[in-house]
Amino acid sequence: MWSQLLGSLFLIASVSALPWWRSLRAPYEIPEWQEKHPALMELVKRTNVDFGSRIVNGNEAFPHQFPYQTALVVRLENESTICGGSLISASYVLTAAHCTDLSVFVTVYLGVHNLSDYTEGTRVVQTVFRSDIVVHELYNTSGYQNDISVIKMPMPVTFNDAIRPDGGRTTDASWDGTDVLHYVKLSVISNTACRALYPTLQESNICTRGENRSGTCQGDSGGPLVIMEDDGIYTQIGIVSFGSGIGCSFNWPNVFVRLTSFLCWLGCHTDLPVRL
Predict the structure, then answer these.
(1) Domain segments of the chain: what residues?
(2) Known catalytic membership, residue 136
(3) Could you tell me the fold of the domain covering 9-269?
(4) Where is 40: in which H helix or E strand?
(5) What is the pTM of this model?
């Protein structure tokens, strides 16, 4: 199956040039997050890892090319951070646990292409408090396993061309420090090869590598990794977890949560019909 994914992986990232967006730091850059995640910060220091990342050498998406992509502004106790996420049903958004485990509330942005354009008629914004955010019960701050979380929105969204769940290709996308959504094509590499660089890698992770030094670099944790099927439908297979801080220059792999390892968990904590 994985051989069919090669060459068709996409990472989607969100980026903004607005001053207040630019002032938002990635989770691992924030002191209160660092204090609560000592093991993860040790990994950052040891390998110069970035937890969640912004797309490097990617392509600008056309408006609403990835209608399931969400931007998340996560309020911590003392400041806010920014993450990515993906719409998986009318009521639920999927993201990384390290984005939400310290959250007070999360503001979810859907139907957005240009983060600085408040006149976009497709934009939907909802605020979700901690009581409606589920972090995987086996996720803890001593490591990066089970880095998965779901957010239940207070109001179901209406699907349209700008807002709808994925359907099926491998790509990663993000707003990536710019106003508009960007994406990059990636290739899956074996966990054996990836483990040579990340010794504690689990089977519940997926590793990717981009061409021409493209990939994730710094800033958009929680965003979706999707694969395009032969019929052009996109299906999400991963969640941005972490990547090497030196990966931009040296083409280190990026690491994602492998969603097939968490289908039962998603079935228990969302309204998503799961077929095993």
Answers:
(1) 9-269
(2) no
(3) Thrombin, subunit H (2.40.10)
(4) helix 38-47
(5) 0.82
